[in-house]
Amino acid sequence: MFEDLVKKVSPVPLDDVVHFSRASEWITKMELKASPRDDKPVDAYVVMPFEGMGIFYYTIPRELEFGAHIDGRRPVLTDRLRFFKLNYCMDGRVEVFMRGKGKYAYLDKGMVGFDENDPQVLLTFRKEYYQGFGLYFNFELMSESDRTTLSYYGITKEACMKLIEREKECFLGNASQEFRLIVEDLAKGIEDRSLDLPRARMQSTRLLYLLLHEDVEPLRKSEYTTSGQRKIAEDAKKRILQDLSIHLTAEELAEELHCTAPALKMYFRKVYGVPIYTFLQNVRLQKAEEDLRKTRKNIADLAEEAGYSNPSKFCALFKKTYGVTPTEYRRLHT
Fold first, then answer.
1. CA distance 176 to 305
2. Which domains does the chain show, CATH number per domain?
């Protein structure tokens, strides 16, 4: 069972952050918490096509970090703990800690990441909505017959290591149309509970064959951040969200964070996928949209609290984004 495999390879107890249940004969449902205190668990679904291999499918409705509950206690990697991990971003943006580089990589919609990592590697979902697919496997935990079956298609530990080492310890690329269609088929099978073992085996084998036989185009230029650069971007975001009515320039933010404005802009875009200005505009509009639904504040006050001193400009921008004026939006949603 998948639950037994997870507990077998986990370096820390999982009872307070993961709850397992059966969704169908072949599909396991996991309720995941970012920490024991997290009161809003999210659902993930897992299928085991082979021993030592899991197909993961999840939809994350908020920005979230998984793996933080380990508190930095990384296990010493042995052959029993090393997993090859294929991540595919269907929508949103995900940050993956790359063990080999000691850095963070970013996957946007349509991108594939492949590396070797420990089972509890950090995954941080950097947008309010994320839909993703993962294929995690360990050849040492597979049966001899399963390893033999995969080897017929050139799917071996040596082939996986060759790809990772060729790409300097991790692979980032853009999925082909065929790759995307296979993922969509697996996701649909999990959603409607129709996915069975033969189909899961066939499709997971096809994905790995495509990956290892260069059907996934490598990125010409991969972007990573260090832990220090990542922290600067996160601190900038926290500072921005403290008070949306305050108009801080990138230069002022950079001075507070002890870096240059060009460096701050670069780190922020790498981590969150958008420039600081775009991020600020989005969160201000989101706050205004929420206030329109949940409060009776007048439009001018609501706009000012969201950081817009000119109500007319706010109304024009709101209509451009949501298709209706703030007054019409409130009428439609209250």
1. 45
2. 2-224 (2.60.120.810), 227-333 (1.10.10.60)
